[in-house]
Design goal:
Elements lengths: L1 H25 L6 H14 L3 H9 L6 H14 L2 H13 L8 H8 L1 H14 L5 H14 L2 H10 L5 H13 L3 H10 L5 H13 L3 H10 L5 H13 L3 H13 L6 H14 L2 H14 L5 H13 L3 H11 L5 H13 L3 H10 L5 H13 L3 H13 L6 H14 L2 H13 L6 H13 L3 H10 L5 H14 L2 H13 L6 H14 L2 H10 L5 H13 L3 H9 L7 H13 L3 H14 L4 H13 L3 H14 L8 E5 L2 E5 L9 H17 L19 H20 L5 E4 L6 H14 L3 E4 L4 E5 L2 E2 L6
Parallel strand pairs: 3-4
Antiparallel strand pairs: 1-2, 1-3, 4-5, 5-6
Helix pairs in contact: 1-2, 2-4, 3-4, 4-5, 4-6, 6-7, 6-8, 7-8, 8-9, 8-10, 9-10, 10-11, 10-12, 11-12, 12-13, 12-14, 13-14, 14-15, 14-16, 15-16, 16-17, 16-18, 18-19, 18-20, 19-20, 20-21, 20-22, 21-22, 22-23, 22-24, 23-24, 24-25, 24-26, 26-27, 26-28, 27-28, 28-29, 28-30, 29-30, 30-31, ...
The structure holds one DNA strand of 10 nucleotides.
Length: 758
DNA sequence: CTAGGGTTAG
C-alpha cells in the first residue's frame, strides 16, 4: 500500500514540478527567491538532474538563505560534497548568513570540514540548536574522535531519541559493542531506528546470530530494517539467507525499495549467478519498478560479472547524464575484467572526476592482463598527479613488480607503504610474498609470511609456489603439513606447487605419496607427476600414468613427457608425446623444436630436416617472447637480434670484450652467448634467444658495475650459459640471481644454488 | 529538518 502511495505522490509531484516551472516562466517569476526555493525543494524530492537544478539556481540574482539551504540539500543528497563546499563559499560571498538549518547539511557534507563547521557554529551561536547539535554529534560519531561525541551527548539536558540513536551508531562505528549495548539497554524510548542500528552493528561485526536476534525481537520493522538484515547476510556471503529473507519480506507485504534492489542485485553479481539474476530482472520488469542510478549501476555490474557485457554497456549508455562516478568505475572494471583494455582505457580517460577507485580499476586491469609495465607507468602517473594510492593500488603494483621481476621498484613501493602508513591486509601481504618469491628473494618472502597474523590458502600457495620455483622442495612440503595443521584446506593450486617443488628438488617418493593423497587430481596434477617421474628417469611409468588418466590429458601432460624424453634421449617416447602435441596444439613451435632437438642429439639429421619442413608446410611460426631486464628501477625490453636499446653500442662492446675474456680464461665461449653473434641457424634458436637475454644483462652489469641486474621472464639456461655466468660472477665478485621459467639460479663466486640443470 | 539500510577496485 505504502509504496503505491509514494509512487503516486512522486508522479503527482513530478507533474506539479513541470506545471510550476511552466507557470513561473509565464509570470517571469524565475528569479523570485520563494519560488526558486520551492522548485529546488521539489527537484531534491524527485531526484532531478543536477544540470537542471543548477540552471534554476543560476536564474536567481540574489539568492537568499532559503534558496541556499535547498540547493545545499540537493547536492548533499547527491553526495556531491565539493559542490556543497563551493556553494557555502558562494553563500558567504553573497553575504548570506547561514542559519541553524544550513549547518546540519554542511556538517554532514565532508569529514574534512566537519570540525571547521563545528567551530563556525559556536561562533555564530548555533551550537545550542538541537538539530545542529545532533549533526555535530553524528559527525564525531562517524569520523571521530568518539569521545567528543560522548561529551556532547552527556551535556545534553533532554536527550531526544535521535541523540541516543546517533550515539549508538557512533559506538558501533568505532567497534564499541559493549557501549552500544549498554546505551541501548539504558535508552528509555527506543524506536525502529534504534533497533535497526543494533542489527547493522552486529552485522558489521559479522555476528549474524545477534543481528538476527535483534531483528526478530523488533517491535516493528521498516524497509530499512529489512535492508539492514539483508545486507548483513549479503556482506557475509550468505546468499541463500538473503534470498530466503527477501522472499519472506515480499510475503510479509513489505515493498522492496531501491536499496533493497541494490542489495539483492549486488548479491547476484558477487555470486556470478546468472539464473538468479535473470529471475530478479524478470521480477523488476513485472512489477514495473523504476530503478535509480545506484540500482542501475548494481545491475550494470551484475550483467558484467555474469558475462553479458553488451547489456552492461546498454545500461551505461541509457543512464546518460544520470550516471555517477561509481557507474563509470563499474564499466571500466567490466571492460578490464574481460581484457578489453582499449575500451577500459578509453572510458578511464573520459571520466570527469577520477577517484582512487577509477585509478585502481584501470591499474588492476593492466596488471591482471599481462601488461605489468603499463600498470606501473600508470601508477607513476598517479603519483605525479598527487593522487594518494591506497592498499588496493599497492596490491596491483606490488604484484606487477613481481611479474616483471622488478625488485628495485618493488622495494621502492614497500618504502612508500611505510612512508604513507598504508596498512596491508592479507591480500596485500600475499602480493608481497608473490613479489619477493618471483624476484628470488625467498628470505623476505618468508619474513612477510611469518609476520602475518592470519594467513589464507593463497598465502600458503604463493609461498609454496615460490619455494617450488627456487627448488626448495623440503620447505614446500613442510608448508603443506603446516597449513593442514592450521586447518587451512589445500586446493588444487597448493598441490601443483608442492608437486612442482618435489619435481625440482628431486623428492620422488614424497611427491608420489602426496600425489596419491590428492582426492580429485586434474590434468595439471598429472602433468606435474609426469614431470616428476620423467626427471627421475622413470619415463615408462610416466607413460603408464598418462594411460591411466580418467580425463583427456592436456598439452602440459604430454609436454612434460616430451621434455623428459629429450633429457633422457628417449626418441620413442619423444615421438609419442610430440605426435599428441601436434594434434592438441599444432601452432606451438616449441614442440617441433624440442622434438628436433631430440633427433639432433641422436644425430638423426634427416629427421631434423623433415621436422623443419613440417613447420614450414604447417605455417608454424616461431614465437619469440620479449625479455625484460630491470636496471636501476627502469625496465628494459629486448628481443632476439634487437639493437633498439639506446645503449646498444655499449652493450655490444662489452659483450665482445666479455667473449674475449672468456676465451682467455680457457673457456670455449659459446657464440650463442654473445649478442652480436646470434644467428638463426640450426637448432641454436632456442639457446640463442635465451642466452641473449643473459648476455644483455651481463653487459649492463659490466657497464654499470654498481647496479643490480635481474634477468626475468622466458629464460631457460643451457650448460654453456652456466659457464658464462660462473666466469662473470667470479670476475665481478658479486651475486647474480637468474630466473628461468621454473626456478631460480643464484650465482656467486662461481657457485650455483641449483643442484641439477638442463 | 535530526538518527537506521545501498552501487565500483584487490
Amino acid at each position: 500500500m505504502s509504496h503505491l502511495h509514494t509512487a503516486a505522490l512522486k508522479a503527482a509531484k513530478l507533474n506539479h514540478l513541470k506545471q510550476l516551472h511552466a507557470q513561473l516562466f509565464q509570470h517571469s517569476l524565475c528569479s523570485d527567491n520563494y519560488w526558486v526555493a520551492q522548485l529546488i525543494k521539489l527537484c531534491t524530492l524527485l531526484h532531478a538532474p543536477p544540470t537542471y537544478v543548477s540552471r534554476v539556481f543560476d536564474s536567481v540574482h540574489q539568492p537568499n538563505v532559503f534558496v541556499f539551504t535547498n540547493i545545499l540539500k540537493f547536492y548533499s543528497q547527491l553526495g556531491a560534497h565539493s559542490d556543497v563546499l563551493y556553494l557555502f563559499d558562494k553563500m558567504q560571498k553573497c553575504n548570506v548568513a547561514p542559519d541553524a538549518f544550513v549547518y546540519p547539511i554542511l556538517i554532514k557534507a565532508s569529514r574534512k570540514w566537519g570540525i571547521v563547521f563545528h567551530a563556525h557554529c559556536i561562533k555564530m551561536g548555533h551550537d545550542w540548536d538541537r538539530f545542529v547539535r545532533n549533526a555535530i554529534m553524528d559527525m564525531y560519531g562517524k569520523f571521530g574522535p568518539l569521545e567528543i561525541a560522548r561529551e556532547l551527548f552527556d551535556e545534553i539536558p533532554e536527550r531526544a531519541v535521535a541523540d541516543w540513536n546517533a550515539m549508538i551508531s557512533g559506538c558501533w562505528n568505532w567497534g564499541n559493542e559493549v557501549e552500544a549495548r549498554s546505551l541501548f539497554d539504558l535508552m528509555p524510548d527506543k524506536n525502529v531506528v534504534t533497533w535497526t542500528a543494533m542489527v547493522t552493528g552486529y552485522s558489521r561485526r559479522k555476528d549474524l546470530e545477534n543481528a538476527r536476534k535483534y531483528f526478530d525481537q523488533m517491535p516493528e520493522r521498516s524497509v530499512v530494517s529489512w535492508n539492514a538484515m539483508l545486507s548483513g547476510y549479503a556482506q557475509n556471503g550468505c546468499a541463500e539467507e538473503v534470498i530466503r529473507l527477501f522472499n519472506e519480506m515480499m510475503s510479509c507485504g513489505v515493498c522492496p525499495d531501491e536499496t533493497t534492489w541494490v542489495t539483492v542485485i549486488s548479491l547476484c553479481s558477487s555470486h556470478g549467478d546468472a539464473s538468479l539474476a535473470e529471475g530478479l530482472v524478470k521480477m523488476i520488469n513485472d512489477k514495473g519498478v523504476r530503478l535509480n542510478c545506484f540500482a542501475k549501476t548494481a545491475l550494470l555490474d551484475m550483467y558484467a560479472k555474469c558475462g553479458n557485457l553488451a547489456m552492461s554497456r546498454k545500461i551505461f549508455d541509457e543512464l546518460g547524464t544520470y550516471k555517477n562516478l561509481v557507474t563509470w568505475n563499474a564499466m571500466i572494471s567490466a571492460y578490464a575484467r574481460v581484457g578489453d583494455l582499449a575500451s577500459a582505457r578509453g572510458l578511464f580517460d573520459k571520466v570527469p572526476e577520477k577517484n582512487i577507485i577509477s585509478w585502481n580499476s584501470i591499474i588492476a586491469g593492466y596488471a591482471q592482463n599481462g601488461q605489468s609495465k603499463v600498470a606501473i607507468d600508470l601508477f607513476k602517473d598517479m603519483i605525479a598527479k598527487d593522487v594518494l594510492p591506497d592498499e588496493v593500488t599497492m596490491v596491483s603494483v606490488i604484484s606487477a613488480c613481481g611479474h616483471l621481476g622488478a625488485l628495485e621498484f618493488g622495494s621502492w613501493a614497500v618504502n612508500f607503504l611505510e612512508k604513507h602508513q598504508i596498512k596491508l591486509s592479507i591480500s596485500g601481504d600475499n602480493a608481497l610474498i608473490f613479489m619477493y618469491s618471483k624476484c628470488g628473494n625467498m628470505k623476505d618472502a618468508e619474513k612477510v609470511f611469518q609476520s602475518m597474523d592470519a594467513r589464507d590458502v593463497i598465502s600458503y600457495n604463493t609461498l609454496i609456489t615460490g619455494f617450488a620455483a627456487y627448488g626448495n622442495a623440503i620447505e614446500a612440503v613442510e608448508l603443506l603439513w603446516k597449513m593442514k595443521k592450521e586447518n587451512i584446506e589445500p586446493d588444487r593450486i597448493t598441490y601443483i606447487g608442492v608437486l612442482t617443488a618435489c619435481s625440482h628438488g628431486g623428492l620422488l617418493e614424497e611427491g608420489q605419496r602426496i600425489f596419491d593423497s590428492i582426492k580429485d587430481p586434474d590434468s595439471d596434477h598429472y602433468a606435474c607427476m609426469v614431470d616428476l617421474l620423467g626427471r627421475n628417469g622413470k619415463l615408462d611409468e610416466a607413460k603408464c600414468l598418462i594411460g591411466s588418466m580418467a580425463m583427456h590429458p592436456h598439452a602440459g601432460v604430454y609436454g612434460s613427457l616430451l621434455h623428459a624424453s629429450r633429457v633422457h634421449k628417449r626418441i620413442d617416447l619423444g615421438e609419442f608425446a610430440a605426435s599428441k602435441l601436434f594434434e592438441i596444439e599444432p601452432e606451438n613451435s616449441g614442440n617441433y623444436v624440442l622434438l628436433s632437438n631430440i633427433y639432433a642429439s641422436a644425430r638423426r639429421w634427416e629427421d631434423v630436416d623433415r621436422l623443419r619442413g613440417l613447420m614450414t608446410v604447417g605455417g608454424v611460426k616461431k614465437t619469440t617472447g620479449w625479455s625484460w631486464i630491470e636496471h636501476e628501477g627502469e625496465m628494459h625490453k629486448f628481443i632476439v637480434g634487437d639493437r633498439s636499446h639506446e645503449r646498444s653500442a655499449d652493450i655490444h662492446r662489452v659483450l665482445s670484450e666479455t667473449e674475449k675474456k672468456m676465451r682467455l680464461a680457457g673457456y670455449v665461449a659459446d657464440k650463442s652467448c654473445v649478442l652480436k653473434d646470434v644467428e638463426e641457424e640450426e637448432m641454436e634458436e632456442m639457446v640463442g634467444t635465451h642466452s641473449e637475454k643473459l648476455a644483455v644483462a651481463f653487459a649492463l652489469l659490466v657497464t654499470e658495475p654498481h647496479s643490480v641486474i635481474r634477468v626475468v621472464k622466458n629464460l631457460r639456461i643451457c650448460r654453456d650459459c652456466h659457464t658464462a655466468i660462473k666466469i662473470i660472477s667470479k670476475m665481478e665478485g658479486r651475486e647474480i640471481i637468474v630466473r628461468d621459467n621454473n626456478r631460480f639460479h643464484c650465482f656467486s663466486e662461481g657457485q650455483c644454488s641449483c643442484k641439477d640443470y638442463w
